[in-house]
Design brief:
- This protein is mostly beta strands.
- It has two domains: 200 residues, no CATH class; 187 residues, no CATH class.
- The chain is 8% helix and 28% strand.
- The strands form eight sheets. A four-stranded antiparallel β-sheet has the order 1-2-3-13, with no helix packed on it. Strands 9, 10, 11 and 12 form a four-stranded antiparallel β-sheet that branches.
Amino acid sequence: MKKQIGIIFALMSLFYVSCDEEENTVPDNDNLHEGYEYVDLGLPSGALWATSDVEVNGSPFFSWGETQPKSTYSSATYKYAAGADSTLTKYSTAALCGDGGFIDGVFKLQPEDDAAHANWGGDWCTPTWSEWQELYDNCTWETTEAEDGTFVFVGTSKLNGAQISFPAVGAMQGTNLLYAGKGAYYWASTLCGNSCTYADGLSFSPSATNWKEGKRAMGHCVRAVIPGDRLSLEMVDLGLTSGVKWARTNLGTSMPEQAGLLYAWGESLPKAFYDFTNYAHCNGTPKTLTKYCTDGEYGTPDDKTRLDEADDAAAQLLGDGWRMPTVDEIEELMEQCTWTAGTVGEQKIYTITGPNGNSIILPMAGTMWQTAEEFVNMRGFYWSSDLDDAGDMWAEGLFINPQSYSLGNQFTRASGRTIRPVHD
């Protein structure tokens, strides 16, 4: 029985991977890598999927970011919390979720916290959200029922006929095994873009297959992959004259309609408070700039007008050739594409369709000044990598609202705004 995905799938996270800093190797031999079996489904990226779940001591359940099973799956036992959901000690992107306001801005699993990589080694990783999307889109799906009434969810590749199956082993909450025989719940490698107390995942049930955010402390399964060309999954070629590719999602989320994280211009860490008193490139005021300054009225001139790689959030957080767009690239996007305002659910967005028919979505995510979020779901403010000619306390970017889109100037550098990465 073919199922429909209940929410638009994303990129980046696009972008997001637990072991993307390691060079992939050729699998050991026919359908085995590090002693574990994989299936080649002929997927466009070349990803190879494990034929079974990661297990340790017979248990397939892991809290997100943990590499060993345990007897109780709760906030009190979660490795990266100080006893409660709002006391995260790692992978925290919002002060309200972090222990004592802690933020580290890390939104993808690191290799040492990836249950697939830590237990199986080699190139095995927890899948990115885009890899889950690719798997789902390129298979036909049916639910089979065993004589004992338990279910197995089987995907058959549309490309080469190979099959992959996911048993309905359920999930763990506290000491309770839930939905055993009826459903299956799997982690992706990224945090949920609208709350870092949750992580992305996929759920299988007899009635539907859906995006399913899960509380990080719960015990879900991990199905490992050997990555292929992950870049191809995370970027969109719109057919632009420059050849530049645009990311499928904003920085800090794996869902194209979600805001992602907010950053001050030239910073790579989200914050609870945005103004010049804690801005990285000044001494507390907009007239004491210490970098990216062309006019002595604003600080110490260095005549830099474009972000260095060290200050480019996309380059620093994603690596692999990603960066923030220039003003020229934003103008090319406006001039060569068709822009259509609309909604995804309740989120206001623009769909930008390129000359070749491919498209991306930009949500109207708002901005943040000091502690106040402003214009959420009303306007969008996207950073470029270029300083504003109007004055050094500003940078340029893209401004969108339901009525129009334009190059935005006088974006206060210390404010929190969204980033849509690009790749050459």
